[in-house]
Amino acid sequence: MLPPEKSSVRRICLFISTEMHLGGGEKSMLTVLEGKETAGFEPVLLCRPKAEVGTAARESGVRVVEVEMVQRDLARQPFAYLRSLLRAFRIVLKIRPAILCGDGWRGVPYAVPMAKLLRRPAFIFLREMDLPPSSVTRFLTKQADHVTTISKAQRRFLMEAGIINDDNSRLIYNGLPMSYLREGNPPEALRVSVGLQSEQLGVVLPGYLSRYKGNLIFVEAVKQITDQIPKARFYFLGGPFPNVSNPEDVGFDKVLAEKVSEEGLSDVIKFLGHRDNVADVLWAMDLVVVPSIHEEAFGRVAVEAMLAGKAVIVSQSGGLPEVIQDGKTGIVVPKNDPTALAEAMLKLLEDDTLRNAFGKAGQERAQRLFPDTLKRDKMWAAIAEVCHQ
Fold it and tell me: Which residues form the Glycosyltransferase subfamily 4-like N-terminal domain (predicted)?
């Protein structure tokens, strides 16, 4: 390693993201970036031109440096990747960071090689519940000096796959800003704005429209209970993925709308689309469901719902059961099981006392375990520790 800078000089911590859109993982990274006064570091973000995460970082006062980087299919375009890595390295040489932090699998192919060339620590925060997209990424991840995971389930999965080990990794849960916190009953005008009348009950599935988010399972579950609880209304909150990489998600929003129509559910299932006021929409509802059928590493939307004081139903998917407490703040159901989801929704919609008790307990849990300040402090403490090793 190069000798450490003098204590009077603020050390630069370089964060690297190749994502163009601002998803949950990027929001979690921004939580850390905003702790720029912590541990004597100055964060700098290296990202692609016009990336949404770069815009958001600038707005929070973080220095942003842009360079073209390859995001996907590195093995299929090795020369493009190497050229972009060289361009990035020339920029990083001028920045002289004390440590390089890669965001997710796609940050690894840039953070680790440049850290090794600079003889600086490579710190990776992983947020996916799958294997690296290429053998190159897998190899480089194993060369990182330290890795953080965001759930016990994700950590266990990656350790069993041989990607990480006890010596070079730690668990730090995601954290959310308390701006999502809502207390008391939502104003009637807010409920009306999303299409709810005073006597109706609202159930919402927040997140991008995707097969893997369990949207079709939700429709099947709704079909089973509409006759039993006619005052319930059901909602999708979110739009299509902005950058669809999976062929099954291409045009899925239209497939989903057609499914709702074919099942005769257009009167009870509504599409709210993308909304900037997510916290208010969650607050206006009575119940939130997250029936993912793929493995969620954490489950950020479940915490958003808990902060809004809502009971949450989640599937047995990755870290989701860690976020809520089954039978205390919500209900965990098997993945890909519309009947189990229907039964859980019916149970909570028919029992106001239980639903409200779950919501209150969930809000207390989210405030205690998942505040953004706790995430930020733990991340910067870990970065400082690795930087001094």
Answer: 23-175
Domain 11-175+371-388 has CATH 3.40.1380.20: no
Q: How far apart are CA 58 and CA 124, in angstroms?
A: 22
What is the C-alpha separation between 256 and 247, in angstroms, rounded?
Answer: 15
Calculate mean pLDDT across residues 306-332: 96
Residue 363: enclosing H or E segment and its boundaries? Answer: helix 352-369
The closest of 239, 235, 236 to 196, measured between CA atoms, is 235
What the block records as the tokens of 179 is: 């701006």
DSSP assignment letter at 182? -
CATH 2.60.40.10 fits 178-369, yes or no: no
Same fold, 11-175+371-388 and 178-369: yes
Per-residue model confidence as pLDDT tens digits over 346-369: 999 999 999 999 999 999 999 999
d(CA 63, CA 388): 23
Cβ burial, residue 316 (10 Å; 0-12/13-18/19+)? middle
C-beta separation of 320 from 308 below 8 A: no
Whether 383 shows a pLDDT value over 60: the answer reads yes
Question: What six digits make up the tokens of 212?
Answer: 């893997």
Alpha-helix residue ranges (DSSP H) falling in 66-134: 78-95, 104-118
pTM value is 0.89
- Look up residue 336 and give its two tokens: 């890909």
